Amino acid sequence: MLKIGLTGGIGCGKSTVAALFQALGVPVLDADQIARELVEPGQPALEAIVNHFGPGIVVAGKLDRARLRQLVFAAPEQRRWLESLLHPLIYAELERRLASLSGPYCLLVIPLLLESGRRSFVDRVLVVDCPEPVQRQRVKSRDGMSDAEVDRLLAAQLGREERLRAADDVIENAGAPESLPPQVEQLHRAYLALREQGPRLPSRIGHDAIDQ
Ligand code: ADP
């Protein structure tokens, strides 16, 4: 099964694009969803987080995600600690779920795929791209974050240019949502064709955003 890694900066439109692939019948696994499940009450990862950050990180038995976010953004070494705990568990769980999927290809939504040095986990990297001012605006209106919070989040992620350089394929999401389905359908056809051709992958699909 061909593994397409869908990545992109926060707010660029990964979830929106993933839903369009899913509507075409493509199996989708979401690393963020797995990360949330891994820290549910009773999970070993939650216990490790409580041991590390102290019992104040749990409120009414549940992880205080906002508090954890504050702590890790204030201290890069804490972020690295948390990532070194969760990333291996997330990739192991992705592997486990992959084993039960079937179809010509699947989409793995992995926001930090490139940042975590796991490019080789997937066969092909699909980047959802938009200009930074658009990205900031979307994050602010979706999550109610301040400019400073968005700044910190973006500083922890790859820059747009670097991410685009690593892309095999690109979905450009600077415009209206209506521009997405045709791009998703084009890629869907290309991925189905790729699966039939075997491992020899053609050059980049959806290249328009690259040369801007
Ligand atoms: P990500 O999963 O990459 O963080 P989302 O798919 O959640 O991004 O999109 C971020 C926000 O922007 C969401 O509120 C979404 O509804 C909105 N959004 C996504 N694409 C567009 C678009 N083309 N036009 C307007 N809003 C969009």
TrEMBL record:
Main location class: cytoplasm
This protein's UniProt keywords: ATP-binding, Coenzyme A biosynthesis, Cytoplasm, Kinase, Nucleotide-binding, Transferase
Functional pathway: Cofactor biosynthesis; coenzyme A biosynthesis; CoA from (R)-pantothenate: step 5/5
Chemical reaction(s) catalysed: 3'-dephospho-CoA + ATP = ADP + CoA + H(+)
Binding residues annotated for ATP, in chain numbering: 11-16
Catalytic class of the enzyme: transferase
InterPro entries per the UniProt record, alphabetical: Depp_CoAkinase (IPR001977), P-loop_NTPase (IPR027417)
GO MF annotation, one: dephospho-CoA kinase activity
Cited CDD domains: DPCK (cd02022)
Protein location: Cytoplasm
Enzyme Commission number(s) from the entry: 2.7.1.24
Role according to the record: Catalyzes the phosphorylation of the 3'-hydroxyl group of dephosphocoenzyme A to form coenzyme A.
NCBIfam families per the UniProt record, alphabetical: dephospho-CoA kinase
Record-linked HAMAP family: Dephospho_CoA_kinase
Family classification: Belongs to the CoaE family.
Official protein name in the record: Dephospho-CoA kinase
Organism from which the protein derives: Candidatus Methylocalor cossyra
